[in-house]
Write a structure and sequence with these properties.
Blueprint lengths: L5 H15 L11 H9 L1 H14 L2 H17 L3 H15 L5 H16 L3 H18 L2 H17 L3 H15 L5 H18 L2 H17 L5 H14 L3 H18 L2 H17 L3 H18 L5 H16 L3 H11 L3
Helix pairs in contact: 1-3, 1-4, 3-4, 4-5, 4-6, 5-6, 6-7, 6-8, 7-8, 8-9, 8-10, 9-10, 10-11, 10-12, 11-12, 12-13, 12-14, 13-14, 14-15, 15-16, 15-17
Length: about 325
Amino acid sequence: PSAELMPTSVAHAQYYLALISPGTPDWREIEPELLDLIATEYENCLAAMRFAERAGIVPIVLGFNISLLLFWRVRGLLRAGQRRLEAALAVVGDQPTRERALVLAGLAHYGQLLGELGPAAARAAEAEAMFEAVGDPVGTRTVIGFVGDIAADRGDFDGANAHYARARALVDAETDALDLGFWHANVGRTAMRSGDLATARRELEQAQVHLRSAPKWYLAHVLVQLGNLARRRGDLDRADGLLREALGHLWRYGAAIEAVACLDELARVALDRRDPERAATLFAAATGLRDSTAVAMAPEDRKALVKNVDRARAALAQAQWSRAAANGRPT
C-alpha cells in the first residue's frame, strides 16, 4: 500500500489479529467457537497477513501464524498453513526466539502429516534446539513428541519410544493433563503400529483419562484408536460407540484429519457387521476428506485400506457399489 494507506492497513491487520488471538498462553489448544470465528474471517486474516509479510511487520506476521497454527491443523488446511509458515520464516530472521521456534514446530508437524519426513525432521531438530535455548519446556517436550512421530512414520518404533521417553522426563516436572494425554497417546499409537496391542490399549486408555479431565479436541484421536482396538477384539458395539463419540467431537471442531481415520474405522465396523453398502459410503467419504487435506498415509495403513475397500467392493454388485460410494462423496 501507499504511504497514505499504510496506517489503515496496519490498523486493519491489528484488528483481525486481536479478533482471532485466543488470549491463552497454550498454543496447543483452541475452542470450537474460535475456530468457527476464524473460518468466517479467514479471507480478511489472510489479506492482513500477506500485507504484513510484504511490509515486513514481523510481530503481526508472527502473531497471525501462531494464532492460526491450530486452525490450519484442526481444519486440515496443511498446505495453506505450510505456505504461510514458510513465508513467516523468510521475514522473521534467524535469532532464537520462542516465536520462531513455534513456526518451526508447526512446519515440522505439518511436514510429518504430509509425509515430508526429511524436511520435517530438520525443522523439528531446529525447533527443539531453539525451545531449549529460550527456556520453553512445553515447546521442547511437544516438539520432541513430533520427533518421535517422525521416527514412527519411518518405521523406527524403538527410536520413537526413545524420543517419547525424553519427552516424558520433561513432562514429569509438572502435572499437566494435556501433556500427559499427548504422551500416553503417542506411546499407545506407536505400540499399536508395532503390534503390541496390550500396551496400546493400556496407554490409550490412560491418555483418555487425562484428556477427559481437561477436554481437548485431541481426545477424539484417542477414541478413534481405542475404537480400532475394540473392533480388532471383535467388540463391535464398543467400537461403534467410541467412534461415534469421536465423530461428535470432530464434528464440533471441524477436525478434518482425525475425521479421515474415524470414517475409515467406522467403515471397517460396518464391514464386520456385514453392511458393505454403508462401508462403501464411509470409505468414499474418508477418501474425499483425505484428498482435501493431503494428509499422508503410512504404508501399512494404505495396504489395510486397499484390502478393506476390495472386500466391500467384492460383496456388492457394481451398481450397488457405485451408488453407495457416490453417497459418500461431497456434493
